[in-house]
Write a structure and sequence with these properties.
Layout: H1 3-16, E1 26-28, E2 35-37, H2 38-43, H3 59-66, E3 73-74, H4 93-104, E4 110-117, E5 120-127, H5 138-154, E6 158-164, H6 172-176, H7 178-191, E7 196-205, E8 218-221, E9 227-228, H8 232-239, H9 250-255, E10 261-262, H10 265-279, H11 296-308
Parallel strand pairs: 5-6, 6-7, 7-8, 7-9, 8-10
Antiparallel strand pairs: 1-2, 3-4, 4-5
Helix pairs in contact: 5-7
């Protein structure tokens, strides 16, 4: 037994070896390449501190930052047929669904909730692009209808955050049928004289923009969000012309009258409070009197307490 080889060398190596750092502590900004510490990124609502690029944020994180105290109640959404067409490509559709549900922890690509923002009760729905590209299937249609029905029943404004690559091909014509269904849901809000506010986030494309995403009483978008029906390359090939710079981005659409606002994510809550109170005929909110969303540290403490309980 060689004690230098078996004992001394491993001991020296362990003293000078680099400590392993968990992979999830840092996130690289896809726009500018800046490495962002996970807590700082969470505090900035997934907005890069270097270039202000708005990265994807999950519906639950968005709602925690939106609602007073981070408190909201989920609205029940009717279940749908698991695999209506028996669709299979490289994977079976149920297998893709299970993988997406495991990855996101959600039932499908849309979350519907109700709560207060600035002491103003609202119903909100948000799409999750990380769930099969936020694709619009029967569940998403059910979610929007359920959200609209809840808003009408409780006389609340309906705020929707869109993020989708279009209709879900695994559900074929059934997914395309959600376009007229969601349009009818929006009409229910109009008939009840309730505000319908849409916040378009990156990306919002395909059949979503041909239905509920472009029917808001007020259309807001996050900076530099991609918004359009067909892709830029398809349009260029069709019209055989070079598209202008920034085509299908938030700022371009604002300049050409398709949007009412382009709002930074950190300012979005106050903007929605102002708009919802105005459209509901309420007095303007006093800025210093608004209850704040719960802090990230408090959320971590709350989750720890719930876990231990």
């Amino acid at each position: 037994m060689n004690w230098i080889t078996n004992y001394v060398r491993p001991t020296i190596n362990s003293l000078f070896s680099r400590r392993e750092v968990p992979d999830n502590l840092w996130t690289k900004c896809p726009e500018c390449g800046t490495m962002l510490f996970h807590r700082e990124l969470a505090d900035s609502l997934n907005v890069c501190s270097g270039c202000e690029h708005h990265m994807a944020i999950t519906p639950r994180k968005r709602f925690e930052a939106l609602f007073d105290g981070g408190i909201f109640t989920e609205v029940d959404v009717p279940e749908v047929v698991a695999d209506p067409l028996g669709f299979k490509d490289q994977k079976k559709y149920p297998d893709r669904m299970k993988a997406a549900q495991k990855k996101t922890g959600e039932r499908d690509a849309m979350l519907v909730a109700e709560g207060d923002i600035g002491r103003t009760p609202i119903v909100a729905a948000a799409q999750d692009f990380s769930f099969m590209g936020g694709s619009m299937g029967m569940y998403v249609g059910n979610a929007i209808v359920a959200g609209a029905q809840r808003a009408v029943a409780m006389n609340k404004p309906f705020v929707l955050f869109s993020a989708a690559g279009g209709a879900r091909m695994q559900e074929g014509i059934l997914s395309l049928m959600q376009m007229p269904r969601t349009t009818v849901a929006v009409e229910m809000l109009r008939e009840a004289n309730l505000p319908y506010i849409v916040v378009l986030t990156h990306p919002t494309t395909g059949g979503v923009t041909a239905s509920y995403a472009m029917l808001g009483d007020v259309q807001i978008a996050e900076p530099n969000a991609l918004i359009g029906f067909a892709g830029a390359r398809v349009i260029e090939q069709t019209i055989r012309e070079k598209l202008p710079e920034g085509f299908q981005r938030s700022e371009y659409l604002l300049d050409h009258g398709m949007l009412d606002r382009v709002t930074h994510r950190k300012d979005l809550r106050e903007e929605l409070i102002t708009i919802t109170r105005m459209l509901m005929g309420q007095t303007p909110a006093i800025k210093g009197d608004l209850p704040a969303p719960i802090a990230e540290e408090a959320l971590d403490t709350t989750r720890s307490e719930e876990t231990s309980a």
